[in-house]
Design goal:
The chain is mainly alpha-helical. Helices cover about 40% and strands about 10% of the residues. It has 10 helices and 7 strands. The chain has helices spanning about 15-20, 90-100, 105-115, 120-125, 135-145, 180-190, 195-200, 210-235, 240-270, 300-310, and strands spanning about 10-15, 50-55, 60-65, 205, 210, 290, 300. The strands form 3 sheets. The chain has a 3-stranded antiparallel beta sheet. A hairpin with a 2-residue loop joins strand 4 and strand 5.
Length: about 325
């Protein structure tokens, strides 16, 4: 058997190989320092019966397979689906956490109300790009995690907006007092009903969620709905849908301008290193409401233009 550079990692070694090959460390049992065989110019003659299968661990040989335990390819640690020699501290930490972690109660509650929810798709809505944590944090805490402080006790339990039904988080998704807001969102998301609470509250559409750019508009609107709900309850004044939509439109324009600055800086950076800019990288965050062309120009979809005109109309009333 000859050892050459063409086969730097043999899967079978003979007893003679173990004696004559140049190595970095002595061969030990599993858990010891792995031995890394080096190719040499030496030819080693052997008998077939001398061949032994070896076990590799993290790039090196730890011993003859029949005397080595555990085999990293055949065994797994807990629920970590990786070869043993590839398991790191991060994998162990996550495995320990999974043994004590519990599903949030809000997930069970929403599934009781809305049926099956694609939580993986819902979770991807909370992503920076056009949005910032300031835009989606309010919705995540108050709506998804159901932490909004509802009317209870001496103040009564009727909805602070419509006053006709018991105030609950799920009721906000079909509250008649917010009909104007949800009708406005149908311009963007093309939903069929203004009181579609699955879409209004969670962005659910079919088995998934609305497009990412559309989802961003939803988040910006909810960012304005929550403080308006608080204001209406604390001041005793009427909930103002027009104020919510105007502030949401202004917030979108601010974030769009920030995105355009990011695109401009990216173009300049690419020009400085003589590299063609990949403008497609920006389109994911605005999918469904706008598109960035090859020249870095942002073009709004007609539905977004219409929504902005409606929201910024000075004659709009509640």
């Amino acid at each position: 058997m000859s050892s050459s550079a063409a086969n730097p990692r043999p899967t079978m070694l003979t007893d003679a190989d173990m004696d004559d090959a140049e190595v970095l460390a002595p061969i030990g049992a599993a858990g010891a320092t792995p031995t890394i065989p080096r190719a040499t110019d030496q030819n080693i003659h052997f008998q077939p019966l001398d061949v032994r299968a070896v076990t590799w661990w993290n790039g090196g040989v730890v011993g003859v397979s029949e005397a080595t335990f555990p085999d990293p390819e055949r065994w797994r640690l807990a629920d970590i689906d990786k070869p043993l020699d590839k398991v790191g501290v991060r994998d162990l930490t996550r495995a320990f956490a999974r043994t004590i972690a519990k599903e949030p109660n809000c997930k069970r509650k929403w599934e009781e109300i809305m049926g099956d929810v694609n939580w993986q798709a819902v979770g991807k809505r909370y992503k920076q790009g056009l949005l910032t944590p300031a835009d989606f944090g309010t919705h995540y805490k108050c709506i998804v995690h159901r932490q909004f402080k509802l009317r209870r006790g001496e103040g009564g339990e009727s909805c602070r907006v419509c006053g006709t039904q018991k105030e609950t988080v799920q009721h906000f998704g079909s509250c008649g007092g917010m009909k104007k807001i949800f009708q406005s969102l149908r311009t963007i998301d093309k939903g069929s009903r203004w009181d579609d609470d699955r879409m209004n509250l969670m962005g659910l559409q079919g088995r998934g969620v609305v497009k990412r750019g559309v989802s961003a508009i939803h988040m910006m609107v909810w960012k304005q709905i929550i403080p308006e709900l608080v204001r209406a309850d604390s001041s005793g004044e009427k909930f103002k849908c027009s104020a919510v939509l105007k502030r949401a439109a202004r917030r979108y324009i601010t974030r769009e301008e920030a995105l355009q600055v990011t695109i401009k800086l990216y173009k300049q950076k690419c020009e400085a290193v003589c590299r063609k800019p990949d403008m497609e990288r920006f389109n994911g965050a605005i999918e469904g409401i706008a598109v960035v062309d090859e020249d870095g120009e942002l073009r709004r979809e007609s539905e977004l233009e219409e929504w902005l005109r409606e929201c910024q109309d000075e004659e709009m009333t509640d």
